[in-house]
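User: Hey, quick favor. My workstation is busy. Could you predict this chain's structure for me?
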Amino acid sequence: MERVRWLELYRLAVELGKAFPGGVRYSSAVMVGVFLWAVIHDRPVSWACEREHWPAQREFRRLPSQSVMSRRLRSKAVKGLLDAMEEALRERGEPHWVKAVDSKPLVVGPYSKDREARWGRATKHGFARGYKLHAVWDGRALPDAWRIEPLNVADTQAARELLPRLSGSGYLLGDGQYDSNPLYDLAGEHAHQLVAPRRKTAKGLGHQRHSPYRLRAIELQQHDFGLALSRQRSQIERSFGGLTCFGGGLAPLPSWVRRRHRVELWVQAKLLVNGTRLLHRQSLAVA
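Assistant: No problem, here it is.
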């Protein structure tokens, strides 16, 4: 199954890779293919650079060295190709008018030497060190928008970067952390109505200025439509769960994935693998 998913992704890389020229010996598609082979097997990149870890009918006559992979994975061409693959898979689905925003902790060990990992709240009652995956899911195989931040960055702060990247229009569901006037305004500016439950500490509206989008959200949640809308927020928990619950999915960060740029590459590759899995399931359901 891993090889089937890899082949689909590699063929997509070859198809799109013509617009992202690479080096003399190895194309950007080859770089992406070798990297995805490591990611889909939860192994370091150096593991995928060794011939014995490939099937007899391998796609490449020669494999790049680990040092070449390390250098090229940070190039604009390879990053651009991965982004193009992500967008291509995302566009195979129809965006839904109801979206949800949330985050998932990606922790590292407390004694890790990763200088970019930070301490932050990882669970309701506990703290850890690492990063967070912030994402907006809209029912498609890949998130509508996502980003990686250190664990100490608040969800509301990350959301300010995500909202301008949303496509289309509709409702955006979040938990009480997103009940913020600036976020309501920002979502409204980008054609989305944010709907989040009021914080437990809120006793009233007070005398401050409130976003008209926040007042609209409060009114919505007093009617059946708004209550039914809010219940759909649990879908994002299933989306995050689906990303982690299969072989080759997004497990806890392995020891060789440290520093923010490596975490971003690793998570993006896992999103691509999960996207192909979901699209394959959808095609079987239609058939």
